[in-house]
Amino acid sequence: MNIIKTSIEGPVIVEPRIFGDSRGYFFESFNAKAFAEATGLHVDFVQDNESRSSRGVVRGLHFQKPPYAQAKLVRVVVGRVLDVAVDIRKGSPTYGQHVAVELTEDNHRQFFIPKGFAHGFAVLSDVAVFQYKCDEYYHPEAEGAIAWNDADLAIEWPFPDDEVVLSDKDSRHPRLAQLDSPFEM
């Protein structure tokens, strides 16, 4: 696998080695030993999730608060998304900055989002099936989020606000300036 560092310390893009021939392709989507050797990170994933969304859907920007904070390894198996991780670690030199990467069924890229980051994505294709591994179980009482369209974050979402499809909950999150982040650098 190939690991691509991003402009913020922590999140990395993972490119698997793909073996293709006339029948199609094969790749190892996750190997704990290879991941640890390539990144220096030892992550014990305990839960896999999948969502299906249509064009214009934005999910996020979510995180789980300690002690149930989650690191995630995300990928798209059908379609295309713009995936975003926002640094919410107090004391970080990149606090409030974000990394955005396009994940597609064709590029097979994965995005590792460590604890201390809010995460979200926008669906660019007619439909997207999104899968992610988490290193902590979901705990509803530990949910946290920031507004997807907080102007201070300067995220260049691919749709105008009035074309975005949100859940009721995702339409009511606070701005980063209103967040007392539970994460320290």
SSE layout and pairing:
Elements: E1 2-5, E2 12-15, E3 18-21, E4 24-27, H1 32-39, E5 47-54, E6 58-64, E7 72-78, E8 80-87, E9 89-90, E10 98-104, E11 110-113, E12 117-123, E13 127-134, E14 143-145, E15 183-184
Parallel strand pairs: 9-15
Antiparallel strand pairs: 1-2, 2-11, 3-4, 5-13, 6-12, 6-14, 7-11, 7-13, 8-10, 8-12
Structural account:
The model has no long low-confidence stretch (mean pLDDT 96). The protein is globular and about 50 Å long. By secondary structure, the chain is mainly beta. The chain has a six-stranded antiparallel beta sheet with strand order 1-2-11-7-13-5, with no helix packed on it. Strands 10-8-12-6-14 form a five-stranded antiparallel beta sheet, with no helix packed on it. Strand 3 and strand 4 form a beta hairpin. Helix content is 4%, strand content 43%. The longest helix is centred in the N-terminal third of the chain and has 8 residues. It has one helix and 15 strands, in the order E-E-E-E-H-E-E-E-E-E-E-E-E-E-E-E.
**End-to-end distance:** 28 Å
State the low-pLDDT regions, or none: none
Q: Total number of helical segments?
A: 1
- Class computed from helices, strands and strand pairing: mainly beta
The helicity comes to: under 10%
E-strand count = 15
The string of secondary-structure elements, in order, is EEEEHEEEEEEEEEEE
Q: Spatial order of the strands in the main sheet?
A: 1-2-11-7-13-5
Portion of residues in beta strands equals 35-45%
Give the overall shape. globular
| Chain-averaged pLDDT | 96
Rg (C-alpha, Å): 16 Å
- Main β-sheet description: 6 strands, antiparallel
